[in-house]
Amino acid sequence: MRKTEKGMGDEDEEKLSKMGLGKEKEGSNLDMNFSESFSEPGFQDSGKKVMGSEFFDHLVDDRGKGSSSSSEGDVESRETRKYTNEEKAEGKIDDYDYDDDNIVDNNSNLDLNLRPDELDASYALQLLSKIMHREVTAVNQESSRYLNQETSRNINQESSRNLNQETSRNINQESSRNLNQETSRNINQESSRNLNQESYRYHKDELRSRHEYILSNVAEHFAHPGIHNEVIKRKSSEVDKELDDSQSPFSLAMELVKKRNFSQSVDNESSIKWLPAQNKGHYVSSHNVPKLMDLCLNVLATNADKIVSLENVPDDLRHRLCKMVSDRRKMDAHFVELLARDSPTEIRVWDTSQLTEDDCIKIFCACDTRNLTVLQLDLCGLCIHEHVLRRILAGPLCRLHKLATISLKGAFRLSDAGLSALAKSAPGLLSINLSQCSLLTSDAINDLAIHMKSTLRELYIDDCQNINAMLFLPALKKFKHLEVLSVAGIQTVSDDFVIGLVEACGMNMKELVLANCVELTDLSLKCVGKTCPKLCALDLSHLHNLTDSALQYLANGCRSICKIKLCRNDFSDEAIAAFLEVSGMSLNELSLNKISKVNMNTALSIAKCLRKLLSLDLSWCRKLTEEALGLIVDSCPALKVFKLFGCTQVTDVFLKRHSNSQVHIIGCQTLPFLKHMDALGHQQAPLQYSPLVT
Q1: In the predicted model, what is the mean pLDDT of residues 464-470?
Q2: Per residue in 643-652, pLDDT tens?
Q3: Which has more pLDDT, 314 or 174?
Q4: Mean pLDDT over the full length of the chain
Q5: Is 281 left (phi over 0), alpha (psi -120 to 50) or beta?
Q6: Largest Cα–Cα separation, the chain
Q7: Where is the composition biased (Basic and acidic residues) (predicted)?
Q8: Which residues neighbour 29 within 8 Å (Cβ) at sequence distance 6 or greater?
Q9: Angle, alpha carbons 327-663-596 (nearest 5°)
């Protein structure tokens, strides 16, 4: 019995009823399954066409009887088709290819020759489940694909968001870093600009104050000389009020000089009368024969590196040899070590610039200093330092209880602490030379006053610019036996300092060096003349504020002066001549270097009064004639050194025809002068004016 496509036979209904599936149940189950399957999430918007009953009808028509609406089928299904046993065995359906997802299981026992209306309900369910499984699989795949796409989209969005955030963070960090760098650069530039402006402002103020100081203290001397002259005249008038004594030695000498000048002007003839010696060539022949001792010392100094010992050589010859070796720049560690052997009593070295710190430590740590009384290490800036002194002083052989004189001139690295350690180790020091020790301050002098106030006699602190004169003045007043003080070049030395010093120590003062202390005036010399009766040596070089009154105070008060330097001052020819008339009998050293007013009056006074003169410096005094110079040389029998640098008026008439056979004329034309610079000899005694008491 053949059934239509829209209906089922009685046998089919009976089979379905046995399986518990009726028509209504089948329809309801199918509808339910399809509705539930195709209503799941993801099917509505997947965009794929879902296979339904049409696909099922296509399968039925392909395998059995019935009409098919598909045009793609190759088998006519209006008649019953008989399948071969091979096809039945293989369960192969050629009309519709399902690839790998076959709807019908190959192992099923279904009879493929059955008509569609004879199909078992189980076959329908199995077929339906396969279809649903395929659809569900497709749906799942689509859902998975959609889910993957959605997940990928979400991941991409999240990654993009994270990337954007990270990029934004990096950009922000980089921007912040660049901003910070730019801000820091701007701040630094602004700070540097402010600092430069502040520094410029500070330097500008400093320059302004310096200019004001120059204008008030220096420039007025040139721009307004009247003001400066008024100040000097005021001070001079204050001094002259107390010195209005026409019967003083200086005033009497000045009157004699003026009368002599007046008589010369009336007679219209020169008072200088000098006749050159007739024996020409006397000067040359008398100075060409060197002494044997000088020749021997010359050879030793030239070959100083070959000397192996100075044992049993007297100190005076050692000193001369050391000076010659230093002049030849051959003073090295080897020669200093020779001087330090065998417990010496004196070590004098004028140039130690070639010694290192290690050389100094090695030499003096091994030196037995128990008998050492004089130690001179000049120009020792490279080898003398605080730690070097401490190493030497801590040595087992260092015993300085006999040390009386020490000179560390030019020790520019010597500090206050190093000097204090030295003062503690050598409390018996009588003379100390600290000239050109630029690191020393006023505290160093205060330490010396603590340890040596009852012993120190000589103190040299030339050109120590860090020392304030008024700050160490109280310490100087504590030195009860101070005889020599040298403060040359210290700009803070003033009239108040000199007055305070000589009032406290003037009675014992024998040498005073005030060269280049440009603030000094006649008031200082007035006090010196009153309070320093024992003064033997005085250096007043380069003091432009001094007038002729200063010489008047010295001549009337200091009658024992043996050595005086008046270089580069503005004293008159008459005042110098009057001073020499009064104080010239005791002078043995006189320096009038570059006093432009020196003339015939001075020459006559020198020739008349300075019989004991040993050294004379008239360099750059170009108003003196050859006759005046010849008269001076021939009239001073003790003269040994005569310096005439810059005197272009000198000729061979004077050089070769004077009668003084022992004088060394230095500085004229091409005559050798270095070997005669020290013709008077060096200091031999530890102290200049007092004996050494052991």
Answers
A1: 95
A2: 999 999 999 9
A3: 314
A4: 78
A5: left
A6: 191
A7: 1-28, 55-65, 75-95
A8: 21
A9: 90
In Å, how far are 142, 291, 518, 527 from 49, measured between CA atoms?
11, 139, 119, 132
Of 360 and 672, the structure prediction assigns the larger pLDDT to 360
- Neighbouring-strand partners of residue 590: 564, 616
- pLDDT for res 62: 44
The whole-number average pLDDT for the span 305-326 is 93
User: Can you give the C-alpha Rg of the chain in angstroms?
Assistant: 62
pTM of this structure:
0.66
Residue 406: beta bridge partners? 375, 432
243-259 confidence digits (pLDDT tens): 556 688 999 999 999 98
**Nearest to residue 105, comparing CAs of 138, 133, 140, 74?**
133
Which amino acid is it at 463? D
Contact 103, 72 (CB under 8 A): no
Question: Judging by beta carbons within 10 Å of its beta carbon (0-12, 13-18, 19+), is residue 45 exposed, middle or buried?
Answer: exposed
CA 123 and chain centroid, separation: 108
- Residue 270 corresponds to which tokens in the numbers above? 């020169």
Residues 603 and 632 sit within 8 Å (Cβ to Cβ): yes
Q: Give the Cα separation of 489 and 474 in Å (integer).
A: 20
What's the CA gap between 65 and 78, in Å, rounded?
6
Which residues have CB under 8 Å from 639's CB, separation 6+? 613, 614, 615, 616, 632, 633, 660, 662, 663
